[in-house]
Amino acid sequence: MSLLWAMSRAADERPRLTPWPTFRDEVGPLLVEFGLPNAKATPEYPFWHLQGSELWEVRGIPAELAKRTPTPGTLNEHHPQAGFTAETADLLRDPVTRLEAIATICETYLEDVDRQALFARTGLSGYTTAGGLLSPPEDGSADEATDEYGRTIGPAPRRDATRSVIVRDEALARKVKELEDNRCQICDTTLRYLNRPYSQAAHIRGLGSPHHGPDEIQNLLCLCPNCHVLFDGLEIYVDSDGLVRGTRDDGDLNPLRLAPGHPVDEAHIAYHRTLCTLKARISGVG
Predict the structure, then answer these.
(1) For 22-61, what is each residue's pLDDT tens digit?
(2) How far is residue 185 from each of residues 6, 211, 231, 251, 255, measured CA to CA in Å?
(3) Is cis: bond before 210, omega within 30 of 0?
(4) Which element (helix H / strand E) includes 18?
(5) Which letter does DSSP use for residue 135 in this model?
(6) What is the pLDDT of residues 126-136, one digit of tens each?
(7) Where do the DSSP E strands lie in 20-87?
(8) How much is the pTM?
């Protein structure tokens, strides 16, 4: 749990070393909520003993006190900091390495933990969808006009908002649709809307945090809206043989169709497949 919490900080590009009070106040409740029943929360234990993994370091404890586990009083007095080593932090900046580390921790140590809740509490909710996290909603809400029964009347309210959005290359989206002739690469459906063919360009590895996938043709599929939702929601994935499978059940297996001239990077497919494996374990499926 402590490592997942620290990986969430890495995904958010926050400082790798965390002061003891912050660690205590944020990790301590996680140990209470997700630790063994009736076990006492001792955040000082992972804060100090994760050094044994050689991935973690603690700074700020005098050498003469570092021969045994410091007490909470000692930690409170000396205000140490702890976190991933610089080398480990550099490795975890790579989204692929970070995902593999999260999946390994979950598989090895958190088999019986409610990982859906744990991910939400540790700031890792972005790993429950292929698209990552959307921009957070703005604080506050616009006033609505209501009638005597409390029903909203008039046009939908609006409010001014400022946010940062990812700029996608629309030319790439058009290109992948043209290459695939607007046919869904998973179910082979060709939709028409307003008397024109309609399809969607779907990123295999999402552009948003924490995936930070590239906006390139090798990271794009042409999908119908249904398959796009299922793919982003980690309900379906492409296996190592190129077959589309469900994370809940296999159903009818269809090969992912690729038109000539449409390259797809297997590394992106593998990343999405790992996300789906993690999703299945989080949901208790498989």
Answers:
(1) 999 999 999 988 887 777 889 999 999 999 999 999 999 9
(2) 38, 22, 12, 17, 9
(3) yes
(4) strand 17-19
(5) P
(6) 898 998 654 44
(7) 56-59, 81-84
(8) 0.81
